[in-house]
């Protein structure tokens, strides 16, 4: 929904009612993940739920939902008879929830949009099906909630679970009993998390870092470039970075927030910088720690880190030389290889050419 948020807020602020279609579940090789959205107002459409496969059918359904005022949960799957009918030619299956949205039906939308703009974590929990009121919402922040799913005990259970999902940036469907019983699955609730973007910390103000910052921004990271040398660590040299920090790398890493979604890219390949930096990095909860350098540099680095007291389990977390083996040479090609490794770790891909494999391309699961 981030892609269409600015447009739907304008429609919402103007007092209009529009249809909002959101992917809530996927199976097999679905082209868009849970949370992908398309908004429809009259003859206008913003966003996408399938990359083009079922957009026409969803557009028509959204028009009907706006006219009726009744939300609909619709499944779209493989089209056996006609590749251009309302089916997915990629062989996947999408569950799409289509609802009418206005100031009356979604009074908290302005607050949600404000939190997204301010990078404040927020999640929207919506009843999809079951004995509850379909379309009922609960807005959950780390320290407060708004709205109701209809039953106080259900609200309490959902608040607890949603905050856990929000902390990890997870979006997906949770199932409960009608009063919040976690052992039952009568009620389906879609949790759409709007966590702040994951952070990419790039250490070393070199030309490779500029390329890595560019591709990190493209992938949706909040990118920080850090180097101790003020003549090199400048906003002019790194226009794609959200922040450029002049500080000793290990000092900065010690003072900043790191979580499981953080990617740390060490591009200094200078023992004065990278050994004390990696000593800190490998003891954080960062989901990715990679370091640039040759295999000889890597072996020397491991020796120095062992001398600094790191255990073998900690050293195994280090991805060095950084990136996948794509034969990269230039800074831009190297940045692509690092991006490929990050994507592989996120979704569990093999890293092999797709043409050499068989079976479905995309795995199931929720989006971080």
TrEMBL record:
Domain XdhC- CoxI: 11-77, 116-177
Superkingdom per UniProt: Bacteria
Listed Gene3D superfamilies: NAD(P)-binding Rossmann-like Domain
Occurrences of domain XdhC Rossmann (ranges): 200-342
Alphabetical list of InterPro entries matching this protein: MoCofactor_Util/Proc, XdhC_CoxI, XdhC_Rossmann_dom
Pfam family, one: XdhC_C
PANTHER family xref list: ALDEHYDE OXIDOREDUCTASE MOLYBDENUM COFACTOR ASSEMBLY PROTEIN, MOLYBDENUM COFACTOR INSERTION CHAPERONE PAOD
Protein known as: Xanthine dehydrogenase accessory factor
Organism placement in taxonomy: Bacteria, Bacillati, Actinomycetota, Actinomycetes, Streptosporangiales
């Amino acid at each position: 929904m981030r892609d269409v948020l600015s447009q739907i807020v304008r429609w919402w602020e103007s007092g209009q009612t529009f249809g909002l279609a959101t992917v809530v579940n996927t199976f097999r090789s679905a082209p868009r993940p849970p949370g992908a959205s398309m908004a429809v107002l009259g003859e206008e459409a913003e966003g996408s739920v399938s990359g083009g496969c079922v957009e026409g059918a969803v557009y028509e359904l959204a028009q009907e939902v706006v006219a009726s005022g009744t939300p609909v949960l619709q499944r779209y799957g493989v089209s056996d008879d006609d590749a251009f009918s309302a089916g997915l030619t990629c062989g996947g299956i999408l569950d799409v929830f289509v609802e009418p949205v206005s100031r009356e039906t979604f009074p908290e939308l302005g607050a949600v949009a404000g939190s997204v703009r301010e990078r404040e974590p927020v999640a929207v929990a919506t009843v999809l099906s079951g004995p509850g009121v379909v379309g009922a919402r609960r807005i959950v922040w780390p320290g407060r909630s708004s709205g109701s799913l209809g039953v106080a005990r259900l609200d309490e259970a959902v608040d607890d679970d949603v905050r856990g999902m929000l902390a990890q940036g997870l979006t997906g469907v949770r199932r409960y009993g009608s009063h919040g019983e976690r052992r039952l699955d009568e009620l389906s609730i879609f949790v759409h998390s709007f966590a702040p973007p994951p952070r990419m910390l790039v250490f070393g103000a070199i030309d490779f870092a500029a390329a890595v910052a560019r591709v990190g921004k493209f992938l949706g990271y909040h990118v920080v470039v850090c180097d101790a040398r003020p003549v090199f660590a400048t906003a002019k040299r790194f226009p794609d970075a959200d922040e450029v920090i002049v500080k000793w790398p290990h000092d900065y890493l010690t003072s900043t927030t790191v979580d499981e979604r953080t990617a740390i890219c060490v591009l200094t390949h200078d023992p004065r910088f990278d050994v004390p930096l990696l000593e800190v990095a490998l003891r954080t909860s960062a989901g990715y720690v990679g370091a640039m350098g040759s295999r000889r540099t890597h072996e020397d680095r491991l020796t120095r880190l062992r001398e600094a007291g790191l255990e073998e389990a900690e050293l195994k977390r280090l991805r060095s030389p950084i990136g996948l083996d794509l034969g990269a040479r230039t800074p831009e090609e190297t940045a692509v290889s690092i991006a490929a490794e990050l994507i592989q770790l996120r979704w569990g891909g093999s890293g092999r050419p797709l043409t050499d494999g068989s079976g479905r391309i995309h795995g199931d699961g929720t989006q971080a």
